[in-house]
Design goal:
Blueprint: E1 2-10, E2 13-20, E3 28-36, H1 39-45, H2 51-57, E4 60-61, E5 65-73, E6 83-86, E7 89-90, E8 107-108, E9 121-123, E10 128-130, H3 137-140, H4 143-159, E11 166-170, H5 174-186, E12 191-196, H6 199-202, E13 210-213, E14 225-228, H7 235-245, E15 251-254, H8 266-272, E16 275-278, H9 284-296, H10 298-305, E17 308-314, H11 317-327, E18 334-339
Helix pairs in contact: 4-5, 4-9, 9-10
Length: 341
């Protein structure tokens, strides 16, 4: 069959390319229904990546967050019409120690490998996770970001000390909000503090124990562990603020992405015996776990729905451009694409 793929060929420029696909191959054929735009997609769309990186990775279909519907499975494992969340990480080898999302050989959609902006996406069977019909597909479209937070929390659990009376989350954006939701679900008895600077963003964190403004932190406040969800230029001050406040032998989970190196207070890290845990992306197991949370805890999906921003129905390339341009001015929430190409 001929599949249409909508690729970014240059900053702010999409073109259609055609691929001849074998429907009898050992793949699940998924029709995308809802996609969500990520900051990483925007860095490609606006050309804010290094020129050499752009030359190497373009042309490429964008988006790595999305849900879809199975249209055909030659293996008969998934029935037509089954709703699924699509896993963007695609490993080509297995390691008994290193997770799939840290293997250098793994491919990741919309990062040098075509993303979900296609008429049909041909996926390995372990790269799709079935989701219940009664959940809001538009909200579940940004499950990939939820899985990233979940993955970071699991790494924290495996590498940190057992004292978990209090958590600090630095960052009042999407990732900080999701991390707060999951921590509240996993540690219902712990004190959870959200650190930020923007009133209307922090107002969404109504379920945490306290909201702390980063320029007005109580002198007596101490936390056991911290999650840094700031990224960019602000990550340096966030990490150093965490190092100052965190208790001895605490862990700092780093989730924010910065394009440039940052300076941190290594002397105090050594004095306190702190553990810093890097985390990036996620794997199929993380998606399975968050879908289980959706099913068991509908309140999690309800809280996640507050993240949904504008929804754009995309029928043409011009519609796609309009969605990406509008997302650039969005400071809170996730822009969702209803994919009807």
């Amino acid at each position: 069959m001929i599949n249409q793929v909508y690729q970014l060929v240059a900053p702010r420029q999409f073109e259609i390319t055609y691929r001849n696909e074998n429907i009898k191959s050992n793949k699940v054929i998924v029709r995308p229904l809802y996609l969500s735009i990520c900051a990483a997609d925007q860095r490609y769309y606006t050309g804010k990546r290094d020129e050499q990186v752009l030359n190497k990775k373009l042309p490429m279909a964008l988006t790595h967050e999305g849900v879809g519907e199975v249209v055909y499975d030659s293996q008969g494992i998934y029935n037509s019409g089954t709703k699924v969340v699509m896993v963007p990480n695609t490993p080509v080898e297995k390691d008994n120690i290193i997770n799939e999302n840290y293997l250098p050989s793994s491919k990741f959609r919309s990062s040098g490998y075509d993303g979900f902006m296609q008429d049909y996406v041909f996926m390995d069977h372990d790269r799709v996770v079935e989701i219940p019909e009664d959940l809001d597909m538009s909200v579940l479209s940004y499950s990939e970001l939820v899985s990233v937070s979940w993955h970071a929390i699991q790494r924290f659990k495996n590498k940190s000390i057992s004292k978990t009376n209090s958590f600090g989350i630095w960052g009042d954006g999407n990732l900080g909000y999701i991390t707060a939701i999951l921590l509240r679900n996993l540690y219902p008895e712990a004190k959870i503090y959200a650190f930020g600077k923007t009133d209307y963003k922090l107002s969404h964190f109504s379920f945490v124990d306290d909201i702390i403004y980063i320029n007005n932190i109580p002198e007596t406040l101490k936390i056991d562990h911290a999650f840094e969800c700031v990224g960019g230029k602000g990550s340096q001050s966030a990490i150093n603020q965490i190092i100052d406040l965190i208790s001895p032998e605490g862990s700092i989970a780093l989730l924010g992405v910065s394009e440039y190196p940052v300076e941190i207070n290594t002397r105090l890290i050594l004095e306190k015996g702190l553990t810093m845990i890097g985390s990036s992306r996620s794997g199929s197991k993380d998606f399975q776990n968050i879908v289980n949370i959706y099913i068991k805890n509908p309140d999690v999906v309800e809280k996640l729905s507050l993240l949904k921003g504008q929804e754009f129905e995309v029928r043409t390339i011009r519609d796609a451009i309009n969605a990406f341009e509008a997302d650039l001015s969005t400071s809170w929430g996730k822009t969702v694409i209803k994919w009807t190409m």
